[in-house]
């Protein structure tokens, strides 16, 4: 029976020596060419200020496009009834036959849980 390799990640202590990363106890890292890893270092260890500013810069990544419709599940509490002007926006679960996965809706209460459709846009 052959030994299978685990996909579990390892923590390997390393040190930067002579322009290359080596094991803390000495020697080149015995990893395959093209291996990718994450490196955690103290900010004070970064010698290039421009690099530090670049790596710390906040980024924005588009996940959902304009016009995407989302369903928001709301719980209506008896002590806080919905104003009549907003009732038309609320939809019961059965308004979306087969359109909503029930995986996380085990405790759905059709009386107090309703949905509202929200469309993402530049409004």
Task: Give a verbal description of the structure.
The protein is mostly beta strands and 123 residues long. It folds into 2 domains: 14-56, no CATH class; 69-119, no CATH class. Helices cover 7% and strands 20% of the residues. The protein has one helix spanning 49-56, and strands spanning 14-17, 20-23, 69-75, 90-91, 113-119. The strands form 2 sheets. The protein has a 3-stranded antiparallel beta sheet, with no helix packed on it. Strands 1-2 form a two-stranded antiparallel sheet. A hairpin with a 2-residue loop joins strand 1 (14-17) and strand 2 (20-23). The longest helix has 8 residues, at 49-56. It is elongated and about 70 Å long. The termini are far apart. The mean pLDDT is 85.
- Global shape: elongated
Structural class: mainly beta
What's the average pLDDT?
Answer: 85
Strand portion: 15-25%
How many H/I helices? 1
Q: Can you count the beta strands?
A: 5
Give the % helix.
under 10%
Cα distance, first to last residue? 63 Å
Q: Main sheet?
A: 3 strands, antiparallel
Order of helices and strands: EEHEEE
C-alpha Rg (nearest Å) = 27 Å
Give me the side-by-side strand order of the main sheet: 3-5-4
Low-confidence stretches: none
Number of domains: 2
